[in-house]
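hi! just following up on the protien thing from before. the input was this:
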Amino acid sequence: MSAERNVEELIAEAAAAPVDGWGFAWLAGRATEERPPWGYAKLVAERMARADAALDVDTGGGEVLAEVPYPPKVLVATEAWPPNVEVARRTLRRVGATVVAVAPDSALPFRDGSFDLVVSRHPVRTDWAQTARVLRPGGTYLSQQIGPGTMRELSEAILGPLPPPDGRHPEAAVAAAQDAGLRVVDMRRATLRAVFHDVGAVVWFLRKVVWTVPGFTVDRYRPELLALHRRITTEGPFVAHAQRFLIEATCPTS
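and the predicted 3d structure came back as:
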């Protein structure tokens, strides 16, 4: 089998694979990414066990929330991407969560002070004012977010040199939380190594994590994908770095 035939098979397989939900099991054996040291799922589980009413914003396919061993009495999740809504509803039946479909960038469809815990893993955008509004006095917001310049090496391998990142800075998140009346009690950052062993893993990742290369399609970027395949073949696995930060804020009691 020729190298070109091999790369076409890798690309075609990844282009046809489903990207529903927010799990990454398809990449097993093909790509790896370090996990943040704080253990977000464990932190969520600990706080859920103490909550009476909790909300998971941008739940994806519900993968993190489904692993909570002791869910609160009231558990709600929101999701704005239609293909994920039904996936989340199936996934979250075991913990008794209600999944609410929302429009992107819309207000949270809940009354003031509805929850004593709001969590979100990799939110598209945090609406701090809405988050503060739905939290009860003394309530907590806990979120793992994507930091500036995440996977920049991969973005530039496809798009070429990019200007410095101008969004998703942890300092901006802290300021926005404080402006909304919340008190930030924890902020942690991590740079995580991601390794891609073949170009198929790259294609699947770019189809799923759409902000890495906005508007990505195989046809549009085939020359860059072939060049990346040659690079992996001659130099070894492609390495990029993900940026993450954890922020925890509380709603004052008075």
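The beta strands are 31-33, 53-56, 74-79, 98-101, 115-121, 135-146, 183-196, 238-250.
The radius of gyration is 20 Å.
cheers
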